[in-house]
UniProtKB/TrEMBL annotation:
ATP binds at K34, L35, S36, G37, G77, R81, T184, Y190, D193. Residues 1-24 are annotated as: Disordered. UMP binds at G76, D96, T157, G158, N159, P160, F161, F162, T163, T164. Its EC number is 2.7.4.22. It catalyses: UMP + ATP = UDP + ADP. Keywords: ATP-binding, Cytoplasm, Kinase, Nucleotide-binding, Pyrimidine biosynthesis, Transferase. This is Uridylate kinase. The gene is pyrH.
Length: 261
């Protein structure tokens, strides 16, 4: 049922067609954007490139400008990954805790860039961090999104052994986003890793089951199971392509759509 009551706690989740009749030219009313930590590095080997943050803030601002509600989950792979720390000898859960804290740092940096561009934003964390960021609360998050604030969901799911892809899918389902938009370094999902195979063929569209059966590697299987079980569409696109984000949100053919098929 479309939300016709203006109650912020009634899910936005309007199908694309119904929101087309509203003031926004967007195909989507509420999106969950997943940014990988590595996307924030730019040309560097580690850390955060402020120029990349500013460019992303600009692109996110374009979405806010046309009335799209934007939730963001940022990864932490530019700083720490639990699995990599574990391979180097560290306890896995400790490594995952460090990875989740890395996502909070990235979210703080992104908020800083958004605010410098005069885009209202809030950071919420799955791990309580009083005095630094607000603890994640679904109802508050929906209120913020409805009021037009960009909400950065940090610290992943709050649990070790998960990824921020799973966190993005989880938060998208919880706040009833219309779509998960996954920004990567490649321009969609291919039949094999396009970075390793020059002859890889891109999919325009892919079903959840095909993505699972073929283990296509662009998103972890836990995340795909979650979106499949809740019929949440995912679009994978290239964040380095200028205007690609805006284009896909207004209905352009960017990247690969993963859905029921
Ligand atoms: N079938 C595939 N289609 C597209 N990308 C793939 C595929 N298999 C593996 N990949 C890799 O997945 C990466 C994108 O996922 P992403 O989550 O952004 O990266 P990371 O896991 O390094 O944070 C791409 O850089 C690409 O090399
Ligand atoms: O719910 C979560 C999300 C993330 N992480 C940890 O945080 C790291 C950074 O997240 P991710 O690898 O998903 O970042 P990205 O690849 O998107 O940069 C992961 O490797 C995990 O160690 C975790 O333990 N639980």
């Amino acid at each position: 049922m479309p939300n016709e009551t203006n109650d912020p706690l009634i899910p936005a989740g309007q199908p694309a067609e119904s929101s087309k009749s509203s003031a926004t030219p967007s195909s989507y009313r509420r999106i969950l954007l997943k940014l990988s930590g590595e996307a924030l590095m730019g040309d560097h080997e580690f850390g955060i490139d402020p120029k990349v943050l500013d460019r992303m803030a600009l692109e996110i601002g374009q979405l806010v400008g046309i009335g799209v509600q934007v939730g963001i989950v940022i990864g932490g792979g530019n700083l720490f990954r639990g699995a990599a720390l574990n391979e180097a000898g560290m306890d896995r859960v400790t490594g995952d805790h460090m990875g989740m804290l890395a996502t909070v740092m990235n979210a703080l940096a992104m908020r800083d860039a958004l605010e410098r561009s005069n885009i209202r934003s809030r950071v919420m964390s799955a791990i309580q961090m009083s005095g630094v960021v607000e603890h994640y609360d679904r109802r508050s998050a929906i209120r913020y999104l409805t009021s037009g604030d960009v909400v950065l969901f940090s610290a992943g799911t709050g649990n070790p052994f998960f990824t921020t892809d799973s966190a993005a899918c989880l938060r998208a389902i919880e706040v009833d986003a219309d779509v998960v938009v996954k920004a990567t370094k490649v321009d969609g999902v291919y039949d094999k890793d396009p970075v390793k195979h020059a002859d890889a063929v891109k999919y325009e569209q892919l079903s959840y089951d095909d993505a699972l059966e073929q283990k296509l590697g662009v998103m972890d299987l836990t995340a795909i199971c979650l979106v499949r079980d809740h019929n949440m569409p995912v679009r994978v696109f290239d964040m380095n392509k200028p205007e690609a984000l805006l284009n896909l949100v207004v209905g352009g053919r960017e990247g690969t759509l993963i859905n029921r098929g």
